[in-house]
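Section 3.1 - Work completed
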Amino acid sequence: MEKTCENGVTAENDECGKFIVEIDDGIKLKDGEINREVETRAYRHRFIHTACVCFSMFSLGWRNGLVGPTFPDLRLITNEDLSTASWLFTAISFGGLIGSVCGGFAYDRFNKIAVFICIVSGLGIVAAVAPWCSHFAAMFIVHALHGGFASALDTAATADVTAIWRQKAGPFMQAVHGIFSVGAIISPFVSEPYMAKKIIAESKRSISLWNTSISYLESSTPVSEFNSFETSSKPSNYSLGTLLSSRYSIAEEVTSNFSNFTFGVSNVSPESSAYNYGETYIYIPYSIATFVCFIAASFYVAIYFIYGNVYNLPVYIHSNTKKTIPQREYFLSKKMKIVFTILLALTLTFYVMSERSFIGFLMTFIITELGWSKARGSSASSAFWIAFATGRLSGIIIVKYVHLSIVIMTFFLIITSGAVLLWLAVIYGINLLIWISVAIVGYGMSVIFASIFLWLSENIRKLTGKMASVLFIFFSSGAMVFPILVGHLMDKVSQMWFIYTQLILFCAMCSLFIFVLVLFNILKKRHETSK
C-alpha cells in the first residue's frame, strides 16, 4: 500500500516517520533527509530500468515484425490456404486475451522483476519453436502462446511506465512503444534472405498472331527472370524466329490462315500458371529473435543485482526538490469513468484490429494483388515500420508541447488520408504512391496507441496493471475475430478488401474518439460551473 507521510515522501510499504530506502549498498534516505547524490542515483536507477523495459519492447517488436513478412512461409510450412492460415492471427489475439489477464494480475501480485524475466524468456522460447510446427494445430497453439506472452509484456510495460514515472510518464511511454517499432523495422530485413523464393513450375500461355493462335508451356524459371515478359500487356516486337529459339516450347497445335500470316506478335496473355516455392529457412530469423529475448531477460537480472528493486524508490519532480509528484484528481463519477473507459477501450480495439491486420496482411496483399516479389514486400513492411518508429520517436517531443487531444486527432487524420492514398495508388497503378501511402499509414498509427493510454490516465482514471489488463482484453477480443473476416474477404471476394477494411476501421475510431472528446468537454464544463 502507498502512504504519503508528513515529510512528503510517497513509497510502497513504508511507515510514516520511519521511511528508509537503501540505495547502492548502505546509502540511505531517512526521514525526508534527501541529498542530491542519492536522489540522482535513484533517478538513474529508474532510467536504467525503463531502458531495460524499452529493450524488452524492442525484442517484442522484433518478434512481431516477423509475423507479416514470414506469413507466406508459415503457410508453406503448414500447407494451408489464406482463409485457413488467417486463423493464426486469431490465435495470437486469443492468446493475447489470456495474456492480458495473466500479465496484469502477475504484475500487481508478484515480484515485478521476476514477472518481466519470465514473460520475455517465454516469448523467446515460443519464437524458437514456431518455424518447426508443420501441423497447423501445433502452429496455432504456438501463435496463441506468442500472443499471450506478447500481450502480457505489453500490459506490464504500459503499467510499469506509469508506476515508475507517474505524471512524467508521457515521453517515456512514447519511448517504450517507439523502441518496439525499431525492432519491427529490422526484423523484415533480416528475414527476407531466408524466405522461400517463388518459381514458376509450369505456365500455359497463348500468343495471338495475325489470324494465328499459339499456346505453349513455359519451363520452370524464377519469377525474377521473366517478370518483364510476363507483365507486358502491350504489343511486342518478338519475331517468330526469336520465339522458337527461346527457352519456351510450343506444346499445342498451331492453326493459321497463311494468306494473312505475319510474323509480328500482337499480344501475349497468360492463361494459367503453377507456382512452386523453394526451401524456407525462416528458422534462422526466428532463432535470432529468441536470442534477443534472452538478452533482454538477462538485463533485468543484472540490473536487479547491481541496483536493487526499483519499485522501492520514491518518485520526485526534480533532483533538487523534496516534493513528490502529486496524485491527479479526477472529477468524473464512478459510473462515467466506466463509460469513458469502455468508449476508449473500443477506440483502442479498432486501432489494434487495424494495426494487426495491416501488418499481418500487407505482405500477402503486395505479392498477390500487386504481383511484387517477397523482397519488395519485405521492404514495404520495413518502410511501414520505419515511418512507425519515426512517428513514435517524434511523439516523445510532440506530447511535451502539443495537447494530447490535438495530437490524437491529427494522427487519426493522417492514417485516414494514408489509406485513401493507398486505395488510389492501387486503383491507378502508381507504385511510388503505394510506397508513400504505406509510410503515411505507418506514421499515422505510431502515436495513437500510447497517446490514448496517456489521455485515459490523465483525464479518466489511474492506470494500474489490473486496468491495463482489462483494456488489453478488449483489444484481444476484437482482434481475435477480425483477421478471419479479412482473410476470408481477401481470399474469396477480392484482395482489395484489405484496403476497404482499413478505411472502415480508421473512420470508426476517429468518429468514436470525437464523440469521447465532445462528451468529456461537456461534463468538464458542467463540473467547473458547479464549482
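Second construct:
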Amino acid sequence: MSTISIPVRCISVIIGLCLYGMKCDDHLQPEKIDTIPCESELFCDGRFLHAIQLSGMFSDSKEFVDRPLRVDANVVINEFTRLMGRDKKIVPQNLIPQMKNLVDSYFLPVGSDVEEASLLDWQEDVPLVRRLRDRHLRNWAAELHGKWKEFGRKTGQSVIDHPHRHSLIALPYPFISPGEVTGRFREQHYWDAYWIIHGLLISGMNQTARGMILNFASLVDRFGYVPIGNRVYYQNRPQMPILAVMVRLYWSHNVHDAEALIKETLPAIEREYDYWMTFRAVDITTADGRKFTLNRYKGSVTKPRPESYREDLETARSLRNRSLPGVEDKLFANIAAASASGWEFSSRWLDGPDKALSELRAEDIVPVDLNAMMCLTEEHMATFYKLAGVDSKSTAYMTKASQRGDAIQAVLWNDAIKMWRDYDLRTRKHRKGFYLSSITPLFASCGSRTLDLMDTHFLRDLLASRDIKKALSYPGGMPVSFVDSRDACHSCQWDFPNMWPTMQLMLIEAVARNSEMREEAANWAQNLINAIHGGYMRHGLMFQNYNVNQSGYYGRGGEYVVQSGYAATNGAILRLLELFPNILHDGNNNEILDKDEKQDLDDHPRPQPHAQPSINENNNGLASSDQPAIDTGETFQFLAQMHTVDPMGSDHSQDKVLEHDKRQHDQRSDNAHYESPLPSKRVRDNPGNNVGCVIAARFMYTASILLILVIIHDFY
C-alpha cells in the first residue's frame, strides 16, 4: 500500500472535483439555454428554411417566414425532400420553378395571419386637438389620431385554430401594428409599443392601450419574458423589460381601471424582472473595489436569425478565422444580442466606424439605456406593491432602484465629459463615442442616493457638455450617434445621419420636468416639430427615422428600407404636442390662433402621399425575386455571387390588403398560458480573466483522476 492514506486521497479527489465544478472568480457559467427555443423546421431552423432563404425567391428574408402554411409542416417537408433529395441545401437553378410552385401552393400570402380590427374606443373628438393653439398643428394632430384606425390589427382566426402553421403567436386582444400593412412589420412589437400606447392614451383609446399591455403580459405568461415581437422566430430574443413602464403610463392617465390593471399584470411584471436578474445580470467591480450588479443583452442562439437569414450568412462570410470552432457561433450570438437591444445595427456595438458588422461585440457591453429602464422598472414595482399593500416588497424594490442608481453613476457616468457611457466588459472601461441612448437615465430619473438628476445645476452642466451641444447643432434633429458607419457597416441604421423622434423625445420630456429648463426643452421640441411636420406636408407620410442634415427628409435604411406610416412616430408626436400645446407652432406657416378660437378641422386638406425621391447612397438590398440560384453545395459561394438592388425601390402605398372583420377576441388565447421551462436559479456573470482559475481547477481535476487511479491500483 502507498504511504498516503486512502482517506487523504479521497478528500483530495473531492476537493479536485469541487474545484472543477465551482465558480472561478465569482463567475457562474450561465445555462446553455436561457430562452425558449423555436422548434419549427420551417420558420426557425432546418434544411428547408436554409434552401428557401438562399434561393433568391425573396428580396427580404422576413417575407418568407411571415407567410402562413396552408397545410401541416410535415406535408411541406415531405414534398421538399421529394424534390431535393435528403442532402442538398441549395436549390439548383433547374428546380427554382418547382420550388416557387411549392411555396405558392403550400403557403398563404404574407399578412394573411392578421386581420383588421375595429377599435371600438376610437372617437372623432380628442381633447388634445382642442388644446392646441396652432391651426395647422391641430389639423395634423387630428389626422394622426385618425390613423390609429388604419393600424388596428388582431390575430387571425387561423392562427388560433392552427398555431403550428404560423410564425405569428396569437395575442388575445387587438393591437396597433408598427407600420403600414404593406410594410415589414405586421406583428405587435415591444419597445415601439411604449410610444404607441402613449399616443393611444392621449387619444383617449384606453381599452386598446390596455389590450396591448395585456398582450405583453400573455407573452410573459408563455415565455417568462417579452420577445421583440409575437413571432416564433423572435421568441429567443428577450427585449428590454418595459411592461412596468407601460402599466405606470396607463396609471398616470387616471384611467378608472388602472389599479385593477396593476394587480392583474404585477405577477407578469415581477416574472419578467426576475428573468432579467437571473439570466442577464452581470457583476462589476470598480477600480476602487466597489461591486455592483447591472444588466446586459445576450444572444441565446448560435444560428442566423430566420427573418434575416441570408443577411446574417452574408455577414458571417466576412469573418476572419471563420473555420475555427465557435467563431461563427459567437457572431450569431452577438447579432441576436444586438437585435434584442432594438439597436440593430449600430457602431455602438463595434469598436470603431471602420469595423464591419462581423465584428459585433454586443454581448460584451453594458448598455446605459437597458439599465436606466431596469431602474425605472424597479421604482414602478415599488409603487405597485405599495398600492397592493405589500409594504415589504415595496421597500425591497425601492432599495433595488436606489442601488441601481448608485451603480449607474459609479460604472456608467463619466464625470470628465458630463455624460453617461456604455461600459465595456472586455476592456473594463467606458465605451467611446456618444449615442442618444446615453441620456436615458434622465428620462428614467434614475439618479444615485446622493444625486438628483433633475437638479438644475447638474442639468446645466450636462446640457453644456460637448455631446449635447453637438447633437443640437443639426437642422433636422438630434442624431442617434455621431458615427457615419455607412462605408464599413451598411446595415448600421442606428448611426449618423439618422434621427429617431422617439429617442429625441426622451431627452425633451426629461428636461421639461425641470421648470427652469422647460423653455429650452420647448425650443428643441419646436425644432423637432418643424422637421417632422415639414416632412409630413412634403410626403404625406410619417417615417421611422429622419435625416438630421435635411430637415423633414427620411433617413437611411439598414437591413431593410425606412418604414413609413410609423405608429411609434405618430405616438411620439402626439406626446410632444401634449407637452407644449400652447407653445408649439407650424414653423413653415408661423400662423398661431388664439387659444379659444374654434376652427373647422376640415379646412386643411389632408396631404396625399407622394413618391419618395430616389436615394442611392445605401444599396444594401438583396437579390430580387428573379435572381437565379447557383447549383452548388457551398452556401458562401452562392452568397458571394448575389447581386444587390436599390432598397428604396419598394412601394410606399398605403392600400389595405386585409379584409375587414369586426370580431373581437376578449379572452386570452389558449396557447398563451404555457409555463416557461426555464430554470429559476440565479445565473450571474462576473466578467474578467478567469483563465488562471480555469487552468488551476482543471489541473486539480486531472490530479484527482490520477489519485483515483492510484487508489484503484492500491485496492487491487
